[in-house]
Automatic annotation (TrEMBL):
It comes from Apiospora aurea. The active site is at 248. Residues 330-362 have a biased composition (Basic residues). Residues 326-371 are annotated as: Disordered. The lineage of its organism: Eukaryota, Fungi, Dikarya, Ascomycota, Pezizomycotina. Keywords: Oxidoreductase. This is aldehyde dehydrogenase (NAD(+)). It comes from the Eukaryota.
Amino acid sequence: MAATLDTTHFPGNVINNEFVPTVTTRHSIDPSTGEPLWEVPVATKDDLDNAVKYAREAFKTWSTTTFQQRAEMLLRYADAIEANREPLEKLHTMEQGKPLSLSKTEFDLTLTWLRAFATMEIRDEVLEDTEERTIYATFPPLGVCAGIVPWNWPILLGLGKMGPALVTGNCFIMKPSPYTPYCDLKLGELAMAMFPPGVVQVVSGDDELGPWMTEHPGIDMIAFTGSIPTGKRVAASCARTLKRCVLELGGNDACIVCDDVDLARCVPKIATLSFLNTGQICMLPKRIYVHERIYDAFRDAMVQFTRENIRTGGGFEEGVVVGPVQNRMQHLRRRPPHRPKNRPRRRRRLPQRLPHHPLHRRQPPDTSRIVTEEPFGPIVPLLKWRDEGEVLARANDSATGLGASVWSRDVARAERMARRLSAGSVWVNSHFDVAPHVPFGGHKESGIGMEWGVMGLKSYTKPRSLWVWKKVFEDAPAST
């Protein structure tokens, strides 16, 4: 393996530890400049069929390796990523648009996650042990698992699927987002030197590739992160072959601020998290409910902090917190849906850069789109509340349930309120805390199943009950 990756050349998809070029290619853009990036492969159905064939063949051997062997390879892979992280971080900022400091954070987290997965062995569980029998719960691997990776956090959410699949004995096929294919292809290139052929493959394509994967009878499980509408299509497609799926979908996280908080301590964190990655993270504060006694003070403090500290700009500019919106689709979704009255209709050119400044919406109706729908951009509504039961009902009155938080000096009160929130992750005096040993997922339309932690790793297995009777033949006559 070369000391440093060439991050300007993408010779093909990574299939069976070889570069497989394609006739058709495509490119994404740098959202900070609007300039085109490099050409990448667009897989055909035959490419996917071959990747699945090689993965199924590799599984026969890979599934028989020990956990220790798999963990050692995963740790070597993490070391290879760390040795090449500087060019990868720059590449990530170019393709995703996030500030370079946040790209570094994503790689920090990814390396922590991979190294943690290498310590998380899923062992047999003894359910009963008597003189007559032992009953185990065992967790053999599924086979071939595929990860469909989003564009907002493609390194952590890509390798955060790969790591659990590999350590539990599965082979893995990654599909990067068409908007951010570059780093994931390079991570597949690094994997070629670490894992046997067919164990890790990366297949880049267009909008047809995802449905081919979810429908493919040779793929045993899909791990998908993305929007709710697409997640529903993934689930429906997987059902045709009774394929396992884990879906981490959109959120519209409620953040409840009580009247006893220390504004100087909570406002900076809430404001920063609201606009992190240009608001393009599913588990950020999306609806901020502030007690009416402190609403005006909280609003003014949050606006002031945002103006003074949340700088917008290109990903390589110093001190930038909010980079550009990642793609034109998202940029258009953030634009106002109606033009003011009496303004003449005219054609508008979309800007080459995709900027978006942080916005606070003050006291919109609970029925407005900014409250009921996930904006997935640097826009956040501030809403008043008075009664504890009423604000909990409003927070839970959503089709989504990914994350939520309660902020109060009275930790017992905050925990009591937190336990009444319907979300897969709930925080007290914080938001968007994640860890490799802690499972996360969503309630309601925010997803199915969990990722990470022991619970998440078991999603990549097919649980089996094993009954061992010890004395059935104890008194039987010896065979002749």
